[in-house]
């Protein structure tokens, strides 16, 4: 049995192994407990088990048998099933249920004895962890909660954005369709009128593009613009935008192509001509700190 | 045996000197105003003379790790009936000096944290004058300072001790259970103890290790005084810590020594584990050397034919 164990556990060293193989080493299987605690697969044969001695000592140190329970405060709870040591969650759950069951039984006993056992909310005394430590704990819990919430919000925002995009695309399509339809309707009406010779009597099809909305102002707020204004509003006043001005200027200066350097650039007229340049702003080397 | 007789005698003497609590009828006490009847003792306590005067001495060895030192300090805060002492030199662990120290401080048991090689923590639990002692290897230490253990409880309140029923299966577990009850249970009426019971210790045996947990009992606040069925259901437990796992190594008959009563057959010392882990690495060099010599022998025994083209590019 010993030799086979050796083969099994130290298989990669086979004929090159020349160390003394100890009893303990060869009989170990690698069933790891936590933190590098290894169990022997077969218990070593020479372990002492002195049952009478143990029970003797137990009798020596025991407290008297009928000591009232309140002195000992012990509860024995049955472990329902075998708990796998390596399964952390199951193990902790087993401990938790043991504690819970134990406290329930203990509290029932204490209740019968009419001993107060729960701390009233106004009882302030020194606790085992200091207040500053509990503040840190609270801070950490809150931080975790906030992280989770932020992650949720970000996810929701992403989803909402996707939806919003879709909704917007749809709305635009609808609007375009509406516009087309209205134009079609007007065209048809005009054709009809043409065909019927611009007579105004007895129109079969009333102007059905007027569905009562013709004189309604659109809900878009455009302050400062009177209803009949077709100028385009404030954005289009004051001539063209800056960039358009630059383009125009350059066109007039450099015309429609031709050789690059043949024309004079710095003349008396152009020294004070600043229409072209980028006025102030972010000119120059952006990397230089200002 | 003799010890037991002495104990019984001591009890008898004590009970005779104690007033007014004996079951046997005595003469009424004589006072100035007449004879005063003893107050009737209608409780059925058998040994009223017994008072739990347990005192635990908590010390550690020198060169203890920070984590284990915090564990020791956590134990000090959990046990109001303990006395903390200075670090003990390594020479004093063997021999009788620890026992003397315990006697000096007038304690009846001792929790000694021995840290070896800055890595392994051994916990000695001993009942001091003559009692048995146990040496444990401590694993899986989480102290109370970890922020994930969020509970808190009164400092010095008496804990409820819960044990799993497999403590009653074997003799050595029974002995350990008794020792744990005496050392970890706060005596009733201790000066530093606080009245309410708001935390619970869990000792359970899983995989031949003793696992320790400490939970705070939290009940929603509006009904703390009158406990109805409902609030017992709403009770939750929050872990306070610390957490550790004990692997019993040996049980001795005396305190910090004496005849071995129990040896754990499954115990492997951490040194052996580390040696095992290092073994394969040691052998790779030996293998290499051997492989080299093998190659040489092989080459010598099977010489290559002379290469025809070896001189082709020689200038």
UniProtKB/TrEMBL annotation, chain A:
The keyword Nucleus applies. InterPro entries: Ebp2. Keywords: Coiled coil, Nucleus, Ribosome biogenesis. The gene is LOC116203306. It holds the Pfam family Ebp2. It is found in: Nucleus, Nucleolus. The keyword Ligase does not apply. Residues 10-35 have a biased composition (Acidic residues). Residues 1-46, 148-290 are annotated as: Disordered. It comes from the Eukaryota. GO terms for cellular component: nuclear periphery; nucleolus; preribosome, large subunit precursor. Belongs to the EBP2 family. This is Probable rRNA-processing protein EBP2 homolog. Residues 36-46, 148-165, 171-187 have a biased composition (Basic and acidic residues). Its main location: nucleus. One of its GO terms (biological process) is rRNA processing.
From TrEMBL, chain B:
GO terms for biological process: ribosomal large subunit assembly; rRNA processing. GO terms for molecular function: rRNA binding. Its main location: nucleus. PROSITE patterns: BRIX. It holds the Pfam family Brix. Residues 1-48 are annotated as: Disordered. Keywords: Nucleus, Ribosome biogenesis. It is found in: Nucleus, Nucleolus. Residues 8-41 have a biased composition (Basic and acidic residues). One of its GO terms (cellular component) is nucleolus. SMART domains: Brix (SM00879). Residues 54-257 form the Brix domain. Belongs to the BRX1 family. This is Ribosome biogenesis protein BRX1 homolog 1.
């Amino acid at each position: 049995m010993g030799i086979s164990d050796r083969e099994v556990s130290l298989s990669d060293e086979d004929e090159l192994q020349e160390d003394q193989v100890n009893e303990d080493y060869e009989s170990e299987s690698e069933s790891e407990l936590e933190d590098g605690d290894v169990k022997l697969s077969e218990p070593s044969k020479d372990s002492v088990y002195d049952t009478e001695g143990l029970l003797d000592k137990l009798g020596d140190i025991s407290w008297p048998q009928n000591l009232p329970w309140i002195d000992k405060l012990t509860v024995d709870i049955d472990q329902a099933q075998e708990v796998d040591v390596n399964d952390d969650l199951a193990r902790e759950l087993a401990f938790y249920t043991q504690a819970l069951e134990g406290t329930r039984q203990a509290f029932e006993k204490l209740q019968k004895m009419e001993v107060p056992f729960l701390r009233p909310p106004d009882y302030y005394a020194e606790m085992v962890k200091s207040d500053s430590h509990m503040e840190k704990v609270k801070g950490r819990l809150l931080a975790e909660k906030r992280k989770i919430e932020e992650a949720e919000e970000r996810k929701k925002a992403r989803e909402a954005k996707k939806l919003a995009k879709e909704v917007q695309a749809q709305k635009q399509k609808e609007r375009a369709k509406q516009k087309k339809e209205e134009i079609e309707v007007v065209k048809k009406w005009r054709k009809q009128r043409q065909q019927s010779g611009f007579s105004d009597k007895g129109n079969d099809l009333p102007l059905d593009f007027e569905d009562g909305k013709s004189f309604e102002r659109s809900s878009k707020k455009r302050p400062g613009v009177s209803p009949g204004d077709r100028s385009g509003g404030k954005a289009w006043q004051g001539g063209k935008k800056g960039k358009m001005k630059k383009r125009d200027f350059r066109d007039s200066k450099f015309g429609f192509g031709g050789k690059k350097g043949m024309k004079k650039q710095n003349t008396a007229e152009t020294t004070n001509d600043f229409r072209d340049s980028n006025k102030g702003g972010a000119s120059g080397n952006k990397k230089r700190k200002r | 045996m003799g010890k037991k007789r002495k104990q019984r005698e001591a009890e008898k003497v004590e009970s005779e000197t104690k007033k007014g609590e004996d079951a046997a009828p005595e003469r009424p006490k004589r006072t100035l105003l007449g004879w005063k009847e003893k107050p009737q003792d209608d409780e059925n306590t058998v040994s009223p003379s017994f008072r739990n005067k347990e005192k635990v001495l908590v010390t550690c060895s020198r060169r203890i790790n920070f984590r284990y030192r915090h564990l020791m300090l956590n134990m000090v805060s959990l046990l109001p009936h303990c006395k903390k002492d200075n670090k003990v030199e390594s020479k004093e662990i063997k021999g009788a000096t620890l026992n003397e120290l315990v006697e000096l401080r007038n304690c009846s048991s001792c929790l000694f944290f021995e840290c070896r090689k800055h890595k392994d923590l051994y916990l000695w639990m001993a009942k001091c004058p003559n009692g048995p002692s146990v040496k444990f290897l401590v694993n899986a230490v989480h102290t109370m300072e970890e922020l994930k253990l969020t509970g808190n409880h009164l400092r010095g309140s008496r804990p409820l001790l819960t044990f799993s029923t497999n403590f009653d299966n074997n003799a050595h577990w029974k002995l350990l259970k008794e020792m744990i009850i005496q050392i970890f249970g706060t005596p009733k009426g201790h000066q530093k103890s606080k009245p309410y019971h708001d935390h619970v210790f869990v000792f359970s045996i899983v995989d031949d290790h003793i696992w320790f947990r400490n939970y705070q009992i939290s009940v929603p606040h509006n009904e703390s005084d009158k406990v109805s069925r409902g609030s017992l259901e709403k009770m939750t437990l929050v872990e306070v810590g610390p957490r550790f796992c004990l692997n019993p190594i040996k049980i001795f008959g005396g305190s910090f020594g004496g005849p071995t009563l129990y040896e754990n057959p499954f115990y492997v010392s951490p040194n052996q584990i580390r040696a095992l882990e290092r073994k394969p690495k040691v052998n790779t060099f030996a293998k290499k050397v051997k492989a080299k010599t093998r190659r040489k022998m092989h080459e010598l025994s099977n010489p290559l034919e002379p290469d025809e083209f070896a001189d082709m590019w020689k200038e």
